[in-house]
Amino acid sequence: MRRRLLALVCVSASLLSGCGLMPGSGTERRTVTVWLMQHSASQEFLDRFTEDFERTHPSLDVDIRIQQWTGIGEKVQTALDAGERDGPDVIEVGNTQVAQYAEGDGLLDLTLESMRDWGRGDWLPGLAEPGQWGSQQYGIPWYAANRVVIYRKDLFREAGVTAPPKTRDEWLTVTERLDTGGNQGIYLAGQDWYTLAGFIWEEGGDLAKERDGVWRGTLDSPAALRGMDFYRRLQALGDGPVGADEEHPPQAGVFAGGRVAQIVAVPGLVRAIVKQNPELEDELGYFPVPGRTAGRPGAVFTGGSDLVVPANTDQRDGAVEVVAALTGARWNTELARTMNYVPNKAELAGSVAEEPGVAAMAAGAARGRATPGTPRWGAVEADNPIKTYMTAVLTGADPATEAERASRRITETLDLDPK
């Protein structure tokens, strides 16, 4: 009799609330809040992704909230520190920012999912490595961008250069040939330290290294000094200011307004160049930064974004599903095509092969690197001794002496326990 009464109660309740008898009926939908940065993805892409995700995940809604880069670090840290859970469940962060958020146990450890389900071993190293803290994976690569050589086809033709250089030695020879008359062989600002980092990595050096838990600056290593020497020789084949970086003045304007044969920049800069000088639209080409040997592009700094999940999320499973979808092959490829990015895996590079600038970028991204994986690296950049070092060398100072001085400053900044 009791079972019958319970059944009647359930049937009656089902008329009002479903009582869970029909598949999917009465199921409460959960919302996954996602913070993405302005201009990382088009609204059209986000609309398509949201519609498809919610259709294939009937119990989940996606609430995408666009954020500004300015002040985002403090805003993210506040969300990670929140005692009561009312913030984002997924956050887009710069690939080099992951360590500072993971250090304070603010992020969810996604190592298992990365290795078991997401193909961690196939990710671009320049995105995957900075997404780690210790041996654990906290940041999941979303998209990448890196520098290539943007060149003027007309100036190459005038100099009799029929094909882009394949090695660094060829690059120097070609650039010297281009640097004649009123032409600059290359415009390379004296403090473009991201480009220098690639040259140092190509030689087998680094900006800083960790040993026994202690980070030390390593600009004074023989390999790093070789990278700086190559930078010095290349930079001399143009009129780039030795005491400024690539944004002072913006190199897009310099390239658009003068007879400059080459610059080192992300392909997206071409939009600004052509806007200032429409006549160059059909005269611009791209090639990967050359390496020491043919058939292997040079090492480059890889910028881009990772997706992280705050440890204080109350929608863990839903957040993981969103990350899996956004960084998976289908939507990662769609994003790359839509926004001219490099996909997060080298095997997906074919999806952007039809766009010359992105194809050159993807070729270089296979050898991409990131800045040292310490949460203190942001402090190094804030008071950047690498720039001071570069200017000193380019104005005739002894490279070994200046490299030792800069390395000492980096070590002092990275020291978490100063004496």
| Oligomeric state of this protein | single chain
Query: Sheet with the most strands?
Result: 6 strands, mixed
Radius of gyration computed on alpha carbons: 25 Å
Q: Which structural category do the helix and sheet elements fall into?
A: alpha/beta
Mean pLDDT rating: 91
Helix content: 40-55%
Please count the helical segments: 18
Q: How many extended strands?
A: 13
Strand content: 15-25%
Shape: globular
What ranges have pLDDT less than 50 throughout 5 or more consecutive residues?
Answer: 1-25
Describe what this molecule looks like in 3D.
By secondary structure, this protein is α/β, with parallel strands linked by helices. Helix content is 42%, strand content 15%.
Task: Sum this structure up briefly.
With 419 residues, the chain is of the alpha/beta class. It is built from 18 helices and 13 strands.
Task: State the main characteristics.
42% helix; disordered N terminus; 419 residues; single chain; alpha/beta; 15% strand
Question: What is this structure's SSE topology?
Answer:
Layout: H1 2-17, E1 30-37, H2 43-56, E2 60-67, H3 72-81, E3 90-94, H4 98-102, H5 111-116, H6 125-128, E4 132-133, E5 136-137, E6 140-146, E7 148-152, H7 153-158, H8 168-178, H9 193-202, E8 208-211, E9 214-217, H10 222-235, H11 251-257, E10 262-265, H12 270-276, E11 284-287, E12 300-308, H13 316-327, H14 329-339, H15 356-365, E13 368-369, H16 377-382, H17 385-394, H18 399-414
Parallel strand pairs: 1-2, 1-3, 12-13
Antiparallel strand pairs: 3-12, 4-5, 6-12, 7-10, 7-11, 8-9
